[in-house]
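Lab notes, practical 5.
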Amino acid sequence: MNAVRDDIGAAIGRIPSGCSILTVQHGDRSTGLLVSWVQQAAFDPPSISVCVKSGRPAIELIEAARCFVLNVIGAESTPWFKHFGKGFALNEDAFAGLSVEPSEFGPVLTDCIAHLGCSLQGRIEVGDHVLYAAAVQAGGVRTGADIAPYVHIRKTGLSY
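Output from the prediction step:
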């Protein structure tokens, strides 16, 4: 059975994905986290889907705020992975040392190549993740940001 699981993992790993930084604020608490499963989900209204690993502290804020910002990172992703890769507790300053602008949907990371202000439409628990559907209600591309987004392929689709 392990050979079948390994084959499944290798096949799933070939599905290309990017990474983005999801930022959220509710009241005086805010945080950000690295997310790798993001996809456009609809044209009208423009919508996306994004998965967050169950148990992540940000889930509390996403569900309370009912909105978030998806900050798209460029191909030079190392600084973002270093900063957001470990995750943050809700009492930690996830944005220390970063250029951030407030928005009605949450913090916008101004050094990202694009951002999407999203309103939560729904959620479903899928295995060890929570899948959110969100309508995109605002967005922008950084001026001069003809930079390619970060995209990667995994060795296996069964783990990060």
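Observations recorded by the TA: Helices lie at 2-13, 58-65, 78-84. The domain at 17-152 is CATH 2.30.110.10 (Pnp Oxidase; Chain A).
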